[in-house]
Amino acid sequence: MTSSTPASQSAGRWQFWLGLGFSLLFLWLALREVNLPETLRLLQRLNGWLLCAAFFNSLLSIAARALRWQELLAARQRPAFGRAFSALAVGLMANTFFPARLGDFARAYLLGEAQAESKAYLLGSIVLEKLADLLFLLFSLLILFSQINFPAWLAAPAQATAALILVILPLFALLLWQKNAFLRAIQAVLARFLPAWQPTLTRPVQRLLNALEAIRHPRVLLSFWGGSFLVWAVSVFTNALTLWALGMRLPWWVSIFLLAILQVGVLVPSSPGRVGVFQYIVILGLSVVAVPKDQALGYSLVLYLVVYLPVVGLGLIYLWREKAAWRKMTLLFQQTGKDKFSR
Q1: How far apart are CA 112 and CA 142, in angstroms?
Q2: CA–CA distance, 100 with 102 (Å, rounded to integer)
Q3: Could you say which of 96, 185, 231, 271 has the lowest number of CB atoms within 10 Å?
């Protein structure tokens, strides 16, 4: 068993320093020209009961995601809710601290080990989750387009995001409809350029595509979209509860707006924990409704804790329980040669 290569170590360091640079830049932008005493006065008015409700709602959003994943996998092998919740909690924490969406691979691996299920199949189910999240992001943007006039700096990115989603979703439908043709094309390309790897790479691709077919089952499709709506609604309500906890009474659509821009904003490179980037995105979002920067900073700090404390806390608890599987997974990721993740 080999250790990670110097090239991969160099790439990891490069990603870390790039992310740290982005975080420091956005943190400086977030703190620039802020009246910190005014921010502290806002935090002192925090309603403890509403804050507890926001934390509970944040936990509920994780449970809703686990329930959606459990229902999606019911077409083949429904995992116990606790097992799906455990793997998801570790995955969300890993996504918070590691680049390249490592947490998505981690939760597929952990549940695959527990269920003796194909990791590639589980990754396919996560792809379906991401597509559902894109659809609800589009839904959010359509609501927002009907409610507000986007400022010039935001209108073009919002329209481009909506257009991109409108391209991705039909392509997915075409892939689902022509799955076998796509698989044959992959096999032909591999046979032409990587013949020795064709069997190894074709199997996980086929299993991933099989997972996409789960939504062909009417009951699974109904529960999946119901679960996706629940995830979206609970996340919006978490933003609203945090606003109310700080005594900020803003238009109803602001919570949807914040969710939409934060979903896009997590794609920006940042240091572990997304400190700086998260705060600046929230401040920019609240500037659309003329919230003073010192108040917006206070809200961004509280919302950050509401969103990430449950993720980190649960992730650490379940990571300790899954430490043997996690250790095995990290060793596999460090290996060179054939992809052990495709089992």
Answers
A1: 37
A2: 5
A3: 185
C-alpha–C-alpha distance, residues 312 and 4, integer Å: 26
pTM across the whole model: 0.85
Please tell me the distance from the alpha carbon of residue 250 to that of residue 301, in angstroms, as a whole number: 18
Q: How confident is the model at residue 337 (pLDDT cuts 50, 70, 90)?
A: very low
Asked if residue 80 lies in contact with residue 116, where contact means CB atoms within 8 angstroms, the answer is no
Question: pLDDT digit string (tens) for 94-130?
Answer: 888 876 678 898 899 899 988 878 888 899 999 999 9
Tokens describing residue 245: 């906890």
Residue 2's contacts (CB-CB under 8 Å, 6 or more residues apart) are: 334, 335, 336
Instruction: Name the token pair of 105.
Output: 């691979």
| Residue pointed to by tokens 């821009």 | 261
Contact 269, 18 (CB under 8 A): yes
Using alpha carbons, select from 246, 336, 318, 310 the residue that is nearest to residue 282: 246
DSSP 338: S
CB neighbours (10 Å) of residue 7?
8
Q: Taking Cα atoms as reference points, which of 132, 307, 304 lies closest to residue 230?
A: 132
**C-alpha–C-alpha distance, residues 316 and 300, integer Å:** 23
Supply the DSSP symbol for 10.
H
- Among 300, 309, 306, smallest CA distance to 42 is for 300
| 35-49, 95-109, 267-281, range with greatest mean pLDDT | 35-49
Q: What is the pLDDT of residue 176?
A: 79
